[in-house]
Amino acid sequence: MNRYFKIVAVIAVLALLPLQYFLLSNVYKSLEKNLYTTIDECFQSAVEEEAMIRFHNIAASRNVTLGGSSSRINQDVLLSVSSILQLSGSSIDMDTLSSIFSGNLKEKELGSLNFKIEERENDTTLYKVADDFIKEPTGEQLSFSSLETHVVPVTQDLTKGLVAVVNNPYVAIFSKMKLMMIFSFIIVLFVIWCLYRFARLLSKANFINNLRKDHTYAMIHDMKTPLSSIMIIAEDFKENEKIAEDAETAQQLKILDEECRHLNTICEKVINVAKVENKKLKFVYEKIVLDAFLSGIKSKYESLYSSAAKKVNIKVECKEGEWMIADRLYLTEIMDNLIDNSIKYSGSSVDIKLSVSDIRHFKEIRVLDNGKGFYKSEKKRLFKKFERGENTVGISGHGIGLHYVYQLMKFFDGYVKIESKVGEFTEVVLGFPSVENYEIVE
After folding, report:
1. Distance of CA 314 to CAs 87, 156, 340, 354, Å?
2. Whether 183 contacts 74, CB under 8 Å
3. Under a CB-based contact definition with an 8 Å cutoff, are residues 260 and 284 in contact?
4. Lowest mean pLDDT, pick from 41-55, 337-351, 381-395
5. What are phi and psi of 326, to 5 degrees?
6. What is the pLDDT of residues 108-147, one digit of tens each?
7. What does the alpha-carbon distance between residue 152 and residue 163 come to, in Å, rounded to a whole number?
8. Distance CA 43, CA 38 (A)
9. H/E element holding 368?
């Protein structure tokens, strides 16, 4: 699981970085466009104002009173004014124009920008003649090191114009993006820190989980030694003729022996589950004739319950000579778990049907019983360790059997499915690969 988490964490970080880049890039482009429009408008306004100042000065010197003010004018008026100024011999005052332009930039909080104003001649292709001076940027005027405004024509024949060249405009852009860049950097660091902390917690959880598994395995394994000693002593008592003559004592020894075997079976199951989870099982594959194998299981259980209060009837449906490749020991354990569940969770009479069929590339063994069944909502969790259905209240069990079956089927490269209807039936389907390159033991 740690490996998968590391892969996911790396993907998350790698996905986050392009996302942050995309966000910052779009913000930069938007600010770039706004900056160009703002500077372009400030310069054109400065050119207009400088022209109108000179125009008013000439009018004042000739004792002519002009109405209106030197506010924004349209391009036709500017060209007309420029033409009059040119005929009057009034030239552009670059210092005044620079001062006005600088003031306009300060009003827009761009006073830190450095610029120079240049004259352009005989290049009418650069003149963007329109009804107003506010123009959308074409993207060609802006580079990382400088920005050029549109050329503002100052002659009627459009052969002469002014342009402002701003150096290092990106400084203004980055100053506005500073907080966003810091915030984005903090987000990336926070995500990386969270993933790191989660990885540490996951590592500790896995360590504790493995420690618990090892402890459980060791504890159950140590229990088997005294349990085996008790079973041996109980067996010796059973063979003692004097003890065997006492019916009550003999019955108690029989119960002791059965309970010891039951406890030993549980211990074996827990140990095997631990082996499965730690991938320490070793399968010995062989050819198993299924009709004989299933008939042997039928005989075993019908014999065990021949004198019991609960009647067990097992029916086998399998073609003669049908076979598959599997580990006999663990296949037997799978079938024992399923049949034990069928008997445990059924009424006074148990009907079990064992059948075999071929489905695509799998050999399916089906175990159908007339037991209590379970609710559909419980289906997904029944194969988890220590999980049991609501319909099992009052019946002894630990929720290990189906989990063990599920893990073993994974080792067989097969599958297990389960269907049920409460109060009617439960059917477990085991799917074994029918064609595999197994190392068969003859």
Report:
1. 119, 109, 12, 7
2. no
3. no
4. 381-395
5. -165, 175
6. 888 888 888 888 876 544 444 433 333 344 434 445 567 8
7. 6
8. 9
9. strand 362-369
Residue (of 254, 201, 199, 192) closest to 14 by Cα position: 192
Nearest C-alpha neighbor of 173 from the set 44, 37, 42, 29: 29
Q: Which residues make beta-bridge pairs with 364? A: 357, 431
Q: What's the distance, CA 184 to chain centroid?
A: 22
CA 126 from chain center: how many Å? 53
Task: Give the closest residue to 322 by CA, choosing from 291, 365, 366, 358.
Answer: 291
Question: Rounded to whole angstroms, how far apart are CA atoms 269 and 267?
Answer: 5
- Residues 137 and 40: their CA atoms lie apart, in Å, by 9
| Torsion of the alpha carbons at 294, 299, 305 and 306, rounded to the nearest 10 | 150
Model-wide pTM > 0.90? no
What tokens were used for 76?
Answer: 């036709």
Burial of 320 (0-12, 13-18, 19+ CB in 10 A): exposed
- Enter the tokens of residue 347: 């009424």
Contact present, 328 and 288 (Cβ < 8 Å) = yes
Cα separation of 83 and 79, whole Å? 6
